[in-house]
């Protein structure tokens, strides 16, 4: 009886060990994939402040800010972050006469600029910290 | 913030939990005649402890979350195999793991909260020297090497501690490299010290550790030394030391002969390695199943040859799994070193990854007859108190190095 158990269990053990290895490799893969996010030529961009491997979803180090940028969980956004604390359509950064404005699109958990929750539209300046969900970005404007 | 982080690590953690639960159930059925309450409680508390530590670490540390997970998988495979071969030793190993995990957290907090590690080059030197001289004077001889130190009822291998001290020494030397470079012969200090240590190890006839010391030293020197000639010189010395070792020590010569043709000495000196090869071959891809093979035919199976036992009863696939786990562990170590900004901890992280890598390579290669056999333990897998504790201390330090320090 024991022999039968042992024979069945050895296959289960190998399966579990390989699933374990695969699930770790998958997590590692996510953080390697993000490394290749290159800086664009644009002088305005969002820079990730978090350590990338502390976030369990895909996120790049840099996102260029050109024209209108939308950020959210759903796939119709320019910046897609699969963070459950981020709303489907969370925020947008809009240009108006050369200035850039941060607009919250009625998100559930809010958008924070330098630690304060924004209420409507706020003008962005170089060095601002934007926090959405678990992610924090630095707004860099070199012009 | 924590919630999402938690869910993504839940999957490997739950798999580990499931693996341990199934294995322990199987082992208790296997060993049902001698089963008592104490064994059941310690087995279950081990599983719980590993689960809780993995859970806690996510909350305590902002750094890497994989390395502890990987090592707990490795030691689960190890302790299962040891318990199956010898339940008494398995129980002892459970206790060592308990102390080891505790030491992991203690060394994590100590290294994290004390500042100034990079400037204590002299302390590392004096402490290692003290341990070497102590071993030489008070040491006891086991299996041909004088490398055990006994205090009261406890005995331990001082080289397990000096390994870590050596990494700290090299790291603090290269972190303060500019300072030493200005002194006369400054760039030769480190080389001199390391050769002094290696000299002591030769006196102890502990050649496995010589190999580890040399590998760590040459690898770190290769990365950080500006005097490139010194590196070639050291590699040359390494070769000379190897050849000298072959002619000076009989047991090195014997090891070499066994490696080249173990079948000629199958009835005595080559018995261990041939049994190991038989065991691996018997197991095949999926193994015989736990409790259905004969790993006890191999002498020293629970320490140096645990890998052969794993291959026999849990299959070559599990053996490859163990090697892959080490690969990921070493990869994470290098990744930690690359993203660390503090130079001292960057070198320490590299040193520890090299330590784990080279140690497991030497013994995997040894039992598979790829390289001559040197009796050292697999970190986290083999039976052994000093090895388990020092590996956990090293892992705790690596955990600190994975965080952003200021």
Structural commentary:
The complex is a heterodimer of chains A (about 140) and B (about 400). With about 140 residues, chain A is of the alpha+beta class. Chain A is built from one helix and eleven strands. A six-stranded antiparallel β-sheet of chain A has the order 2-1-11-10-7-8, with no helix packed on it. Chain A has a five-stranded mixed β-sheet with strand order 4-3-5-6-9, with no helix packed on it. Chain B is mostly helical. In chain B, about 75% of the residues lie in helices and about 5% in strands. A three-stranded antiparallel β-sheet of chain B has the order 1-2-3. Chain B starts with a helix and ends in a 5-residue tail after the last helix. The N terminus of chain B is likely disordered. Classes of the chains: A alpha+beta (about 140), B mainly alpha (about 400). Chains A and B meet through helix 1 of A and helix 1, helix 3 and helix 13 of B.
Summarize the helices and strands and which ones pair or pack.
The complex is a heterodimer of chains A (143) and B (406).
Chain A lengths: L1 H32 L10 E5 L13 E3 L4 E4 L6 E2 L10 E6 L2 E6 L6 E3 L2 E2 L3 E3 L4 E5 L2 E7 L2
Parallel strand pairs in A: 3-4
Antiparallel strand pairs in A: 1-2, 1-11, 3-5, 5-6, 6-9, 7-8, 7-10, 10-11
Chain B lengths: L1 H29 L6 H24 L5 H20 L1 H27 L7 H18 L1 E3 L2 E7 L2 E3 L1 H18 L1 H6 L6 H16 L2 H18 L3 H21 L1 H11 L10 H13 L22 H34 L3 H25 L17 H17 L5
Helix pairs in contact in B: 1-2, 1-3, 2-4, 3-4, 3-13, 4-15, 5-6, 5-8, 6-9, 6-14, 6-15, 8-9, 9-10, 9-14, 10-11, 12-13, 13-14, 14-15
């Amino acid at each position: 009886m024991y022999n039968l158990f042992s024979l069945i269990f050895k296959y289960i053990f190998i399966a579990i060990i390989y699933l374990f290895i695969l699930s770790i490799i998958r997590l590692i893969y996510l953080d390697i994939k993000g490394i290749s996010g290159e800086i664009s030529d644009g002088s305005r961009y969002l820079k990730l402040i978090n350590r990338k491997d502390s976030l369990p979803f895909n996120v790049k180090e840099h996102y260029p800010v050109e024209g209108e940028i939308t950020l959210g969980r759903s796939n119709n956004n320019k910046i897609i972050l699969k963070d459950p604390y981020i709303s489907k359509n969370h925020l947008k950064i809009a240009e108006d006469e050369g200035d850039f404005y941060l607009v919250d699109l009625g998100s559930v958990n809010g958008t924070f600029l330098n630690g304060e929750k924004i209420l409507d539209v706020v003008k962005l300046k170089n060095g601002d910290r934007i926090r959405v969900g678990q992610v924090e970005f630095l707004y860099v404007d070199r012009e | 913030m924590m919630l999402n982080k938690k869910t993504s690590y839940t999957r490997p953690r739950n798999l580990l939990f499931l693996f341990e639960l199934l294995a322990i159930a199987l082992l208790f059925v296997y060993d049902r005649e001698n089963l008592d309450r104490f064994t059941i409680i310690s087995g279950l508390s081990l599983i719980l402890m590993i689960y809780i530590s993995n859970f806690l670490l996510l909350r305590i540390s902002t750094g890497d979350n994989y390395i502890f997970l990987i090592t707990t998988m490795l030691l689960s495979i190890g302790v299962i195999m040891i318990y199956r071969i010898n339940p008494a030793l398995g129980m002892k190993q459970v206790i060592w793991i308990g102390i080891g995990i505790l030491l992991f957290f203690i060394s994590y907090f100590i290294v994290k909260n004390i500042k100034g590690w990079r400037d204590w080059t002299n302390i590392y030197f004096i402490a290692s020297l003290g341990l070497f001289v102590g071993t030489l004077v008070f040491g006891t001889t086991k299996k041909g090497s004088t490398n055990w130190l006994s205090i009261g009822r406890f005995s331990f291998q001082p080289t397990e501690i000096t390994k870590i001290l050596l990494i700290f020494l090299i790291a603090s030397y290269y972190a303060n490299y500019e300072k030493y470079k200005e002194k006369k012969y400054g760039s030769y200090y480190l080389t001199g010290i390391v050769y002094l240590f290696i000299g002591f190890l030769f006196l102890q006839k502990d050649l496995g550790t010589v190999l580890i010391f040399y590998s760590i030293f040459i690898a770190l020197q290769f990365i950080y030394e500006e005097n490139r000639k010194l590196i070639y010189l050291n590699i040359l010395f390494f070769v000379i030391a190897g050849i000298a070792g072959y002619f000076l020590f009989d047991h090195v010569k014997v090891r070499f002969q066994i490696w080249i043709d173990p079948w000629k000495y199958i009835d005595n000196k080559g018995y261990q390695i041939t049994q190991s090869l038989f065991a691996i071959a018997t197991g095949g891809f999926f193994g015989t199943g736990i409790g259905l093979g004969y790993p006890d035919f191999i002498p020293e199976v629970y320490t140096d040859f645990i890998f052969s036992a794993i291959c026999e009863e849990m299959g070559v696939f599990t053996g490859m799994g163990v090697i892959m786990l080490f690969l990921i562990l070493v990869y994470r170590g290098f990744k930690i070193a690359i993203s660390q900004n503090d130079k001292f901890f960057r070198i320490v992280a590299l040193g520890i990854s090299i330590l784990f890598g080279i140690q497991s390579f030497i013994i995997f290669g040894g039992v598979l007859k790829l390289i001559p056999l040197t009796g050292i333990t697999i970190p986290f897998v083999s039976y052994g108190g000093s090895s388990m504790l020092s590996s956990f201390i090293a892992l705790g330090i690596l955990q600190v190095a994975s965080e952003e320090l200021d």
